[in-house]
Structure formats: C-alpha cells, structure tokens
Amino acid sequence: MTSVPDPARPLAGVRITEISSFVAVPLAGMTLAQLGAEVVRVDPIGGAADYRRWPLADGGDSIYWAGLNKGKRSVAADMRSAEGQELVQRLIVDSGVLVTNVAGRQWHSYDTLVQLRPDLIHVEVSGRADGGTGVDYTVNAGIGFPMVTGPAELSAPVNHVLPAWDVACGIYAALAAVTALRHRDATGQGQRVSIPLENVALATAGNLSFFTEAMVNGTARERIGNSVYGQYGQDFVSSDGVAFMVVALTGRHFRDLCELTGTTKSVAALAQTLGADFTDEGSRYQHRDALTGLFSEWFGDHTADEITAALTETSVLWERYRTFAEAVTDAKVTSNPLFTRLDQPRIGQYLAPGLPVAVNGAYAPATAAPALGDDTTGVLTEWLGLSRDDVARLAETGTVA
C-alpha cells in the first residue's frame, strides 16, 4: 500500500545541510525542518559563534541556540582541516542543498561544490551586496528606521529590539530553498541563490514606501512615538497605570471609539473648528494630538479591567501592553495549539512554538534541538555509509566530535 504524504511535512525526504550562526540562516534551517526536511547543522568542534549566546540556562547552555535549532540534527567537525572539509563537502553533495551565512570559504563555495554535484542548490546569506559584512543592527542603522523610532521629542537613534531583517531574511532564505527545490524537480537544474541581509532591509524600506516617499515627495518620515502613521492609533494609560494600544483604521472603528469614550459630540465640534473631515483616515492622523486629548480623559478615568471589558464590546482594535513574562502566562500562549510542552535536554520543560502555520487546522508540534554533535555518528553512517569504526577513527584524529 502506498503511504499518503503528510500534508504538514511537504519536504519529507529532502536533505539539507546548514552551516550557520546567529539568526537568519538558523531560522531558515529550522523552518525547513518544520516543513519536513531532514536538516543537518554542521558546526565546528566546540560550536560556532552563537553556541553560547545569551540567554543561558542555569547550567550554561544557550536557550537562544536551542530555540533556533529545534528539529535539526547536529554534526560537529573540524572545518579547518582538509579531512574535515572533505567530509563536510560529502555531506553537502549527498544532500544536494546547502544553506549558509558563512561566506568567503572557497571549499564550500558554489563554484567548488557545483563541480562535485551539478544540480546543487546553494543558498548563501551575506551581509551586504557589495561583499561587505553586516549584521541586523548595523544594517538597520544605515537604512533610516532608528531615526524614526521612539518618542517624537527624541533626537537620538533608537534600534528596535527585534532583529527584523534577520527574521525576514531567514524566511526569504527558506522560501528560496523551497522554490529552488521545485525548480530542480521540474528541470533537473540546481541554483545559486544569494541573499544579502542589507538588501532585505532595503527592499522592505522601499516596498513600505519609506524610500519612495523621500524620492517622490522629497519628504522624510517623522518620528511619531507610538502613533500609527497615516491612521489613528495611540497608546493610553488607565487610572491604575496600565498602558493600552488602541487603533482605529476604519470609519467604524473610529465611530466606536468616539462612542465608547463619550466624545462623539466633542469630536464633531473639533472637526468643525479645524475644518477637518474625520471620515478621512489622513485627517484623523493629521489631527491625532487633538483627538488624543479628547480620548485620554476617558481612559484616565477607568481601570484596566474596565477598559478591557468596554473595548471588548466594540470593533476597535486594541491590546494591553504586556511584558514577555506576562505574555507567557496569557491564554494566547498557554491555550494556543501553536505551543506544545517541550522537554528540551539541558534546558528544561517549557511551552515551545512549532511552525506558525496550521495545515488542515493543525499545527505540527515543536521538537527538541540537539546538543552540539549529537548526531555526528548517525548522520555519517546514514548519509555517507561510514561504519561506526570509521567514525571512531575520525573522532580519534579530531576530525569530528
């Protein structure tokens, strides 16, 4: 009887080799593993630059590393020695797919590897398109976003705590690998894919009109704090000191917000005084400070629980500001099928997310990350056909660990 493929694991049977560190490529590899691929992360003996990255568990193991390597297999090899490099080349050739951000290494470059496997898929993330180095925070500094992040009165740049370009780049890298696999299935041809991290940031700034606004209108985006550009959105504080983010994107949202706060007549009078049309979202944005002055009184007169109950009955978009520690106790985590309890060796038990895509209504659960070198013997015997004695000899010479 022919087995039915698991729709949640469309990449089952695909092998991928990953040589990486930091965020973008580890995220790409984990995403591909969550889609069913067998992903082997190859690290130098002792670990790459991110193996001990904070935060750490009490025992010194990296919670960060475990979070971005769930579901992978781990091989540790001496990638400075000729024997170690040749061994890793064989793994890449066997899998036919390499995803990496370790650029400039001739021995695992596309030009070298394609001589060993003509249909190779080689996805390489670099810092900048000109070959220069760059990480999320340095790339971000040169794009413009830190200059429009933070309170309106602030003049200093503010970096966002979320490494947005790493995350976006990781998803682009996973998408590139999947499309290259489809192309190879259709044509028998491999692909060389290059994804500069800086280009991901530049494309995003262009696609979201930050660059286009400056080029076409000759204007630069202003710093507006927690307001929402071009719309009405603002943070408010309750009488007991709890902060809320409130957004009114549509006419219905705005009418409900006015009704909730008892300001319908005041807002109409304000519109008449200013000669403004608050049915227009641009006008609501332009006069956001005056509107906020009207709405703030109602929020300041009510407790967080009262505000929560009242907003729940409206169409207004809103959320209460929470810390990470508060969020993990909320039902959005504790009752969300995206999260399942994971027993991560060396770290402990906790709720961990799987792939945030439900297939036929179900989420695939997260699986534990390996420790460095956990799968060296298994991968070398299964992929390359080496015997356990062969692997033992490699370990004795320090070629693998």
UniProtKB/TrEMBL annotation:
Keywords: Transferase. GO terms for molecular function: transferase activity. The keyword Transferase applies. It comes from the Bacteria. This is CoA transferase.
